[in-house]
Write a structure and sequence with these properties.
Length: about 220
């Protein structure tokens, strides 16, 4: 009896992977459990590798936003670039049709850093004023970009992610992509990010100030 318990199931590795064969009727559960464990490990690995696959197709410094008519919302405000340890905000306005049909939005963000690591996706806390949906997060130091997406939850319970199977992306003021650094706070001589002028975000603040001044002149005209 004891010998049978020790040898509940054995595994052999062949061309199709591990083959678990039960030695006794009592071992059937063991064999099924081992197969489920292998499947679970495979799925988890695929999920963990998804951000890396996305990064390999991304263009450094090029933000990804919804195409016109692609999503049931319009971007009202979005900070760009994102800056280390400073608040990053996004506001989107739900389309009137979805609002009238009692659609609900969930916004999810993900921070990826210059060492190639991405945090787990996090559901954001949303401020809602009628159709306007606003979020604010603070990216960690040395981050590459902020990923974000919207899940539309319809009145009938069906859901759709925007974008589907990917992310919208806002790149940071100092990003690393395929070994090359870029952004307004990048330091080519250091092959990294600027450490002073000289504080993180200095170049980004100048860029934002320039855009604001240009907008002011346009309004005056």
């Amino acid at each position: 009896m004891g010998h049978g318990i020790v040898n509940l199931c054995v595994g052999t590795f062949g061309p199709k992977g591990w083959d678990f064969r039960a030695k006794t009727k009592e071992a059937t559960f063991c064999a099924v459990s081992m197969k489920m464990f292998s499947l679970t490990v495979t799925v988890c690995m695929l999920i963990l590798l998804m951000p890396l696959a996305y990064a390999s197709t991304a263009v450094g410094g090029q933000d990804v936003n919804p195409e016109p008519g692609e999503a049931p919302f319009t971007i009202i405000t979005r900070d760009s670039p994102s800056i280390d340890s400073e608040a990053w905000s996004l506001a989107v306005e739900m389309n009137q049709e979805e609002h009238d049909n009692n659609t609900v939005f969930e916004l999810t963000t993900q921070i990826c850093t210059n060492n190639g690591v991405c945090d787990p996706p996090m559901k954001a806390t949303i401020g809602i004023e009628d159709r306007l949906h606003s979020i604010e997060i603070t990216p960690k130091s040395d981050h590459t970009y902020v990923n974000w997406r919207v899940k539309a939850i319809y009145e009938d319970g069906n859901t759709t992610n925007f974008p589907q199977g990917s992310w919208y992306t806002t790149w940071s003021s100092c990003w690393q992509n395929d070994g090359a650094y870029g952004g307004v706070d990048a330091n080519p001589a250091k092959d990294g990010c600027a450490e002073s002028e000289d504080s993180p975000g200095f170049g980004a603040l100048l860029a934002v100030s320039g855009v604001a001044m240009a907008a002011a002149f346009i309004r005056r005209d």
